[in-house]
Amino acid sequence: MPRSRTEEEPRSRRSRRQQYSAATRQALVDEATRLFTEQGYGATSLDAVVAAAEVTKGALYHHFAGKAAVFAEAFDAVETRAAERITAALDAEDDPWDKARAGLAAFLTVVQEPEYRRIVVQDGPAVLGYERFRESEERSTFACVTDIVRAVLSSERGLQASWAEDEEMLATFARIFFGALSSAGEAVTTSADPEAAAGRVEAAIGLIIAGLQALVDDEDTRG
């Protein structure tokens, strides 16, 4: 039996309220991300965030417990965008070694950008705490590294196909490469010349990738 007009109206009002609530939350996160990037966590006040988002402080507290909670959501949003860009770079390549190079290039581009440098690298660990910071990285950039390592290990021209099926070995490889990338990313973000630092990192890690690929190709030739 069709719903009456009076039954439809409450649902329509709820839908509009939900849309408005979601838009308010997004505006708060967007403006907080911008302010955290420009000023840093310590110098950004909630008054500045609500003024920029053009909402009341009551609206902010409806969505978030406080500044740290706003920062956590901004941090997750920046990490998610970074992971999406790296994943897109990986998906654009078929050869696993090209995936590794493309992923490296995308990562080095991301870490030079102001919002990633400030929110993820500089303020993230101190504001979120080490455990929460690492958990977020596990879900985003570390997952991308694991995909790269799995592709390199499991391909016909990979290092050791059986290792791709060994979750502990896969995790070990991924952890080693992720540690190297994390250190490299920090070196880039803290450098007085991030672009030059990124170029050095890309050359160094690119040389390692080329060496591993040459080793595999040599084994294939001998076989």
UniProtKB/TrEMBL annotation:
Molecular function per GO: DNA-binding transcription factor activity; transcription cis-regulatory region binding
Can you give the residue ranges of the HTH tetR-type domain? 22-82
Q: Which residues bind DNA?
A: 45-64
Composition bias type Basic and acidic residues, residue spans: 1-12
InterPro entries membership: DNA-bd_HTH_TetR-type_CS, Homeodomain-like_sf, HTH-type_TetR-like_transc_reg, HTH_TetR, Rv0078-like_C
One Pfam annotation, family name? TetR_N
List the keywords (alphabetical).
DNA-binding, Transcription, Transcription regulation
Task: Show the Gene3D superfamilies listed in the entry.
Answer: Tetracycline Repressor, domain 2
- Which residues does the annotated region (Disordered) include? 1-23
Descriptive protein name: TetR/AcrR family transcriptional regulator
Query: What species was this sequence derived from?
Result: Nocardioides bruguierae
